[in-house]
Amino acid sequence: MNSSDDLIQKCLIDWRIKFYEYTRFKDIELIGEGGHGKVYRATHKNNEITVALKSFKSNNVTIKEIVNELKLHCKVDMHSNIIRLHGATKNEDQPNLSSLNYMFVLEYADSGTLRSYLRNHFNYLSWNDKINFALQIASAIKSLHAEDIIHRDLHSNNILIHQKNPQSFEGSRNENRTFIFNKKSDVYSVGVLLWELSSGYPPFKDDVKPYQLASLIVDIKNGVRETHIEGTPSEYIKIYSECWQHNPDSRPDIQQVFLGLKNLITNNKQSINRIAQDSNTLETHGSTRNSLFISDSTEGILMQNTSSSLLN
Ligand SMILES: Nc1ncnc2c1ncn2[C@@H]1O[C@H](COP(=O)(O)OP(=O)(O)OP(=O)(O)O)[C@@H](O)[C@H]1O
Hey, which of 36, 39, 103 would you mutate to test ligand 1's pocket, going by the most ligand atoms within 8 Å of its Cβ? Predict the structure, then answer.
């Protein structure tokens, strides 16, 4: 055992993180790769639960960063919209590698990233679904900020969908970034995500050819923003426009964003009830009305971890 092993093992003990024997996993299959290393899907032999195993490339990540990421996961592990850390494992099949053959054992999200989900399913989403997704994102960031954790890298490829519920899953590991990030930077990113939920695609998607990138960045710094998508509820526009204000001090905090979205859902439900009542009244007078403009699927937030309704 080397000193890196010692550090990780100490962290597992201190933070009461469960260790799983690597041999207890079967059907291990590569499903993705990010800056830090590869991600595999696997099934635990005892209980048939599917998990994600996240590995680390020794060149790209330091032990300190891995230990920090473990601690971050532990701090926010209670939130249903943040991918749960089940524990850690170690791939002993590769004894020549450094201790970075440790892997995280994570909750598995079954429906890909938010960006790909929007690409494939946008036309099937009601406004209620979109606001519901927005609320879940705000709720996850609210719980990070409550622990004074800043995400710093929030975008639709960092949010995974599990049975239709978005789970924001990555605390940022990059401590050496040049930019200074604060909670209001996350709020800006939430504003951009809310716009993406209204459009189905990331901002300025047609303007980001390499030769246009530099001028686009200057434009954005000068306050240029995407145009609103027709049909977007005005209260929703107000929320994301406040989030992406140029001056960070003018942006709301995440709690305010969360409450704004929650009110929007409550108001929509009241509209639905009103329409349903109108509809009943009309039916008793011999006419029919099929005009529910928002499907009532907000239970997704309440029914986390059930097969029909959950949100990375
Ligand atoms: N818990 C998970 N469940 C299902 N798929 C996952 C999970 N974690 C990661 N993936 C898949 O693996 C891909 C890469 O994940 P990773 O965490 O490396 O993303 P990244 O944010 O691009 O990387 P980094 O944070 O290192 O820059 C994801 O885009 C996703 O498709």
Answer: 39
Residue nearest to atom 23 of ligand 1 (CA): 34
Nearest CA to ligand 1 atom 16: 34
From the CA of 39, give the closest atom in ligand 1: 12
pTM: 0.81
* Domains, in order of start, for the chain: 3-107 (3.30.200.20), 114-310 (1.10.510.10)
Tens of pLDDT, residues 240-286: 999 999 999 999 999 999 999 999 988 877 776 666 666 555 444 43
Q: Under 8 Å CB-to-CB from 246, ≥6 apart: which residues?
A: 221, 223
217 in Cβ contact with 210 (< 8 Å): no
Q: Look up the ipTM and state it.
A: 0.96
Ligand 1 atom 31 nearest Cα:
32
